[in-house]
Amino acid sequence: MQSWTAPVVPQLPGTGPELSLWDTASRRVLPTEPGPVARIYVCGITPYDATHLGHAATYVAFDLVNRAWQDSGHEVLYVQNVTDVDDPLLERAIRDGVDWRGLAQDQIELFREDMAALQVIPPAHYIGAVEAMPGIIELIELLRDKGAAYEVDADLYFPVSADPEFGRVAGLDQQTMMALSAERGGDPDRPGKKDPLDCLLWLGERPGDPSWDSPFGPGRPGWHVECTAIALTYLGRQIDVQGGGSDLAFPHHEMSSSEAVVATGASPFARHFVHAGMVGYQGEKMSKSRGNLVFVSALRRAGVDPAAIRLTLLAHHYRSDWEYVPAHLEQAIDRLNRWQHGVARPTGPSADQLLEGVRARLADDLDAPGALQLIDAWADDAIASGGDDAGAPGLVRDLVGALLGVKLS
Fold first, then answer.
1. CA within 20 to 30 Å of 310's CA: 56, 103, 320, 409, which one?
2. Distance between CA atoms of 402 and 12, rounded to whole angstroms?
């Protein structure tokens, strides 16, 4: 599957410090310590109702990870999926009276346009579940051969008991896991399961649903195993970061991690499980089910500079839950204008310490709000009193573009 056009990332002098991130599994900030190639898998969209600000906040957050790693001298191998066949997509297509394939394609294209506008560096591999079907089936066969799959009617399930460390990612108690499983696509009450938390690997063919041939009969894959298969295929047995929104910690990342560990014998699957906070609107979490969505494409059509949209997101720490209000965008537009005026001057205050400061803030668990404040101070000084460093405005323009992904004209 085609990704989107890559933005230009300016080259900066020197290198940044190594990135540290909060790891959900260990409940603390830890250095990422990747090898020469940093490997990251970020869960992608189910292609309907794309791209709202909640989506955008997540992908901008992991774009910062990508940029920080590159700035510290690592090659980054970034993989992202698209869940282009799943119950929510099929249900939306039926509701709207459209073909599910066409709905998925239209929404994927819109997502690509939004990511390019927001200067998000594209993944090296952008993979849909449909195109990954052979690898998904192969992984399910492997799990079955290892005794980590069992049948309930025409469906196959993964037994969480196969992974002795199941539960380490989200660190939740049984009652909470049961509730979240029921809320987030699981079926804990289904008769015949060995454990209520066991998750679906293969859904046997249902009338009217798309299906694929497999050694276990026609059908389609469960949600979790899709990401497991794609990550293992393109990134290998262990990765540096598995990322997504905080609502993916359980069950999605818990299940996909366990499937990978059982399949490969390598633990942990990810050295860091990293989760972005939820964005709210009108008093509730921004979500497709509630319909309280603010779309990036709608803001762009209204004439909003994508750089201001990105600054709106960067003003909040990636792990924080926050509620969007239009004043946030107004503040971001004002900030963008001040930065533009600052770098438009022929000279400015020295920016060498600013570069070091922004690098340090981002290396400390992606403290983007702290980095923005440092640039605010430089821009205010440049506008108020100028400076005598002819290279400073250009360096600030480059560091903002390279580290924050904000393109200043």
1. 103
2. 8
Taking the CB of residue 109, how many other CB atoms lie within 10 A of it? 14
Instruction: Provide the 10 A C-beta neighbour count for residue 43.
Output: 24
The predicted-structure confidence for 257-296, as pLDDT tens digits, reads as follows: 999 999 999 999 999 999 999 999 988 777 766 778 999 9
136 close to 229: Cβ distance less than 8 angstroms? yes
| pLDDT score for 288 | 67
Q: What is the spatial distance between Cα 258 and Cα 197, in angstroms, rounded to a whole number?
A: 12
User: How are beta strands 279-281 and 322-324 bridged, if at all?
Assistant: parallel
DSSP structural state of residue 183 = H
Element holding 112 (H helix, E strand): helix 100-117
Which H or E run contains 371? helix 368-385
The span from the CA of 145 to the CA of 226, in Å, is 18
**Cα angle, residue 61 at apex, residues 7 and 87 outer, rounded to 5°:** 100
Share above pLDDT 90 across residues of the chain, in percent, rounded to a whole number = 96
Helices (DSSP H) in 118-216: which residue ranges? 133-145, 174-183
- The DSSP-derived string for 304-355 is --HHHHHHHHHTS-TT--EEE-HHHHHHHHHHHHHHHHHHHSS-BS--HHHH
Which has the minimum average pLDDT: 69-83, 129-143, 214-228, 282-296? 282-296
- Neighbouring-strand partners of residue 158: 199
AA letter at 217: G
Q: Quick one: average pLDDT of 331-347?
A: 97
Report residue 328 as tokens.
């946030």
Q: What is the distance between the alpha carbons of residues 279 and 57, in angstroms, rounded to a whole number?
A: 8
Q: What is the pLDDT of residue 376?
A: 98
Question: How far apart, in whole angstroms, are the C-alpha atoms of residue 104 and residue 85?
Answer: 8
Q: Long-range contacts for 352-355 (Cβ within 8 Å, ≥24 apart)?
A: 352/395, 354/378, 354/396, 354/399, 355/12, 355/13, 355/14, 355/395, 355/399
The answer to whether 25 and 67 have CB atoms below 8 angstroms apart is no
Long-range contacts of 378-384 (CB under 8 A, 24+ apart): 378/342, 378/348, 378/349, 378/351, 378/354, 379/338, 379/339, 379/341, 379/342, 379/343, 380/338, 380/342, 381/348, 381/349, 382/341, 382/342, 382/343, 382/345, 382/348, 382/349, 383/338, 383/341, 383/342, 383/345
d(CA 318, CA 15): 23
